[in-house]
C-alpha cells in the first residue's frame, strides 16, 4: 500500500512530519554509506567513546584489507590501551559479519575470559545496532563465547588458545594477546606449546582463502610473532607503531626519531617518558615499542645495583624472609640462602647471603641461623619436588634451637602454582625488572652475590643465591598487598586484643 500526503489549501502536497523525513533520510543514507573499515564503524557505533588517531586509522585500514582480501596475514604490535583490541577484535569481528553474514570468525586469547570479553562487546554492538548493520543475532540461547547471525552460518567462536577448538572453521582468525606476560614468553616450554597450538590446531581451522590477524606484545625474540616473521617474512605484513619513533625500530607511521604517537587515551610525551622510567627497558620496549629486549647477554647490570644501592639494611622492616634454594643431592652441592626485607615503602632490600655448597642438614641449619640473626619470621624453600621432605628437614633442625622469635617454614611456589618449574629465566622476570627499576635493592655490599648476579646469562645455570632471592622476593611482594598493621598508643600501654576490644565513648 502506498501512502501519500494530503494536499494543502493551495493544492500543493503537504509536508511529511519533519521527524519522519529525517529518520527515513538518515536510514537511507546509512544504508548507502555503510562503513567499510573498523575505524569508520567505530565512529558510527561508538561516537565519542572511540577516538580515531593516525595509528587507529592505519590499523583499521589494514584490518579492512584482511577482511576483504583472501589469504591475508597481518601482525599488529601497538602500545597498550591504544584501541587496538577494540579496532581489531571487536569492531573487526562486527565488520566481517556485517560484510558477510556467513563468515565464520574465531577469536583466541591467552585465556577464555579475555576472548569472552571481546566477544560480549561485539555481540552487544550487533544487538544494539543490528538494523543499521543489516544483521541480527540468532534467537537461540548461546554461550558468551559462541553465537551466530540469524539466518546465516556466520558467527563468532571466542576461546582461550589452549582450550582446544573442534567442529569450527574460520574465514577470519583473530589472535589477541595469546601470551599473557613476560614470564610465559620467557618459558621455552610455553613458547613451544603456543607454536604447536597455532600450527597444529588454529591454522588447520582456517578455510581456504581465510585471513589471519595477530595482535600481541613482543616479550621474546622467539615468541610466535618472532617465529613467523623469521620463518615467513614474505607472508606476513607487520604493522608496528612504537610509542616513540626510534632509529632501528620499525614504524608503520614513518615518523622521524623522537616523535611521540598521538595517543587515544591522551598520553603526553612526558607521560610516556615517565612510563619508560617506571617500567624499565624490557617492559618498555616489549609493550610500548613493539620489539623484544633480547635476553641474550648479562641479565642483571651492575649499574642497576649501584644506582639503587641502600647504605644499610632497613631498621624497622615490615617483614623479613629467608629464601632457600636447597642443594639437590644433599651431598654438599650448592645451596642458595638469602635474607631479604620489605621496607615500609614497598622496597625489597637484599640484606644477607649465606649461599655455599652444603649438605641438607647444613643448609637447613644455615637458613635457621640466618633467620635468627636477621629477625626473619619465615623460611621459604623452593620446592618443585620433595616439598614434604624439605619442610621436614628444616623443622627437625629447628627443634634443636632455642628460637628468639617464632619462625614459620613454608615451601614455594604455593601449592597449585607450579608453573615454569624448569625455567629459571621465566621465574626471575619480576625480580629482574625490580632490580632495574629499583624496587629491589642491595643493602650495603654483598660482593659474591653481586659478582654472580651480574655474570648470569640466558641459557646458563642460574646462580643459587639468585634462585633463593626469587623465592624471598616473591613471598615479600605477595605479602605487601595483604598485610594489615595495627598501632597501639604507647602513652597508655595495653594488649592489642584489649585495645581493639575497648569501648569507645562519645
Fraction of residues in H or I helices: 25-40%
The biggest beta sheet is recorded as: 7 strands, mixed
Q: What's the overall average pLDDT, rounded? A: 87
Low-confidence stretches: 1-16, 484-497
Radius of gyration: 30 Å
List the helices and strands and how they pair.
Layout (H helix, E strand, L loop, with lengths): L17 H15 L5 H9 L7 H15 L4 E5 L6 H16 L4 E6 L2 H22 L12 E3 L6 E6 L9 E7 L5 H5 L1 H15 L3 E10 L8 H8 L5 E4 L28 H11 L1 H9 L12 H6 L11 E7 L5 E12 L5 E6 L2 E4 H15 L3 E5 L4 H12 L9 E5 L11 H4 L1 H9 L2 E3 L4 H8 L9 H17 L15 H5 L6
Parallel strand pairs: 1-6, 1-7, 2-4, 2-5, 5-6, 8-12, 10-14, 12-13
Antiparallel strand pairs: 3-4, 8-9, 9-10, 9-11
Pfam families: Terminase_6N
Protein name: Terminase family protein
Amino acid at each position: 500500500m502506498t501512502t501519500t500526503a494530503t494536499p494543502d489549501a493551495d493544492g500543493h502536497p503537504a509536508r511529511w512530519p519533519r521527524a519522519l523525513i529525517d529518520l527515513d533520510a538518515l536510514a537511507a543514507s546509512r544504508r548507502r554509506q555503510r562503513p567499510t573499515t573498523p575505524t569508520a564503524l567505530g565512529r558510527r557505533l561508538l561516537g565519542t567513546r572511540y577516538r580515531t588517531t593516525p595509528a587507529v586509522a592505519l590499523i583499521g585500514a589494514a584490518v579492512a584489507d584482511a577482511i576483504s582480501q583472501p589469504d591475508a596475514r597481518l601482525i599488529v604490535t601497538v602500545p597498550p590501551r591504544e584501541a587496538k583490541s577494540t579496532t581489531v577484535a571487536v569492531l573487526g569481528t562486527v565488520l566481517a559479519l556485517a560484510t558477510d553474514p556467513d563468515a565464520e570468525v574465531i577469536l583466541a586469547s591467552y585465556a577464555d575470559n579475555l576472548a569472552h570479553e571481546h566477544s560480549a562487546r561485539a555481540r552487544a554492538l550487533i544487538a544494539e545496532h543490528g538494523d543499521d548493520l543489516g544483521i541480527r543475532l540468532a534467537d537461540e540461547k548461546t554461550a558468551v563465547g559462541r553465537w551466530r547471525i540469524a539466518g546465516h552460518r556466520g558467527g563468532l567462536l571466542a576461546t582461550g588458545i589452549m582450550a582446544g577448538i573442534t567442529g569450527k572453521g574460520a574465514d577470519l582468525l583473530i589472535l589477541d594477546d595469546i601470551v599473557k606476560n613476560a614470564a610465559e614468553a620467557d618459558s621455552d616450554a610455553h613458547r613451544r606449546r603456543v607454536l604447536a597450538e597455532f600450527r597444529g590446531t588454529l591454522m588447520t581451522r582456517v578455510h581456504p582463502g581465510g585471513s589471519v590477524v595477530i595482535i600481541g606484545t613482543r616479550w621474546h625474540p622467539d615468541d610466535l610473532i618472532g617465529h613467523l616473521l623469521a620463518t615467513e617474512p614474505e607472508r606476513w605484513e607487520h604493522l608496528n607503531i612504537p610509542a616513540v619513533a626510534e632509529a632501528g625500530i620499525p614504524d608503520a607511521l614513518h615518523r622521524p626519531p623522537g616523535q611521540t604517537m598521538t595517543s587515544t587515551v591522551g598520553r603526553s610525551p612526558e607521560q610516556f617518558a615517565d612510563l619508560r622510567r617506571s617500567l624499565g627497558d624490557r617492559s618498555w620496549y616489549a609493550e610500548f615499542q613493539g620489539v623484544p629486549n633480547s635476553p641474550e647477554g648479562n641479565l642483571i647490570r651492575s649499574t642497576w645495583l649501584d644506582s639503587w644501592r641502600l647504605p644499610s639494611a632497613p631498621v624497622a622492616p615490615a617483614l623479613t624472609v629467608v629464601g632457600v634454594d636447597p642443594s639437590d643431592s644433599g651431598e654438599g652441592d650448592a645451596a642458595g640462602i638469602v635474607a631479604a626485607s620489605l621496607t615500609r615503602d614497598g622496597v625489597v632490600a637484599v640484606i644477607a647471603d649465606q649461599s655455599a655448597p652444603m649438605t641438607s642438614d647444613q643448609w637447613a641449619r644455615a637458613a635457621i641461623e640466618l633467620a635468627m640473626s636477621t629477625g626473619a619470621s619465615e623460611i621459604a624453600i623452593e620446592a618443585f619436588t620433595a616439598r614434604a621432605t624439605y619442610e621436614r628437614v628444616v623443622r627437625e633442625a629447628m627443634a634443636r634451637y632455642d628460637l628468639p622469635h617464632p619462625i614459620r617454614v613454608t615451601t614455594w611456589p604455593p601449592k597449585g602454582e607450579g608453573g615454569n618449574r624448569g625455567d629459571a629465566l621465566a621465574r626471575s622476570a619480576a625480580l629482574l625488572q625490580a632490580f632495574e627499576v629499583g624496587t629491589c635493592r642491595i643493602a650495603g655490599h654483598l660482593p659474591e652475590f653481586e659478582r654472580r648476579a651480574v655474570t648470569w646469562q640466558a641459557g646458563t645455570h642460574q646462580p643459587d643465591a639468585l634462585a633463593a632471592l626469587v623465592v624471598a622476593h616473591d613471598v615479600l611482594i605477595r605479602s605487601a598487598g595483604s598485610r594489615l598493621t595495627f598501632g597501639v598508643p604507647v602513652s597508655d600501654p595495653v594488649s592489642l586484643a584489649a585495645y581493639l576490644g575497648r569501648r569507645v565513648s562519645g
